[in-house]
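Need tokens for this chain, all 146 residues.
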Amino acid sequence: MLFTKAQGKAVMDLTTAETVGTVAACTVAPSPPRIAGLRLKTRGRGHHTLEWNDVQSFGPDAVAVEEAGRIRDDKDIDPGNHAHATHDPIGKAVLTETGLNKGTVIDIEFDEQSGGIRQLLTAEEQIPGEELLGVGSYAVIVTAPD
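Here are the structure tokens for all 146 residues:
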């Protein structure tokens, strides 16, 4: 699934069957490359994150979470945690470990069951997920070509 297709999906609390937010962005982690968290639009102020391991299911119409208490306020997430907003790759430059610019991340193709990243998409190319080395505040780092 492309992440742009996941944006706007409702996030449902399974204990109350209520919508507790919508998917706004994602964060990623390398080794293995995967979705680490979903950033949510929720009622009220601030930003909130649902860590991927708290996602019960990722269906065609909604994302299910066992209970809304699993959703965390962004200010309570350590910047070193891959679920932190710093690790959102969309809109960031893609650089190889040797400094070659490969464009800007415009989308991510991922497996909605496991959260595994299949590809990072730029306007110029599709970069295999296994090439992801890290995501920082400025750029996404991938392995350099041989």
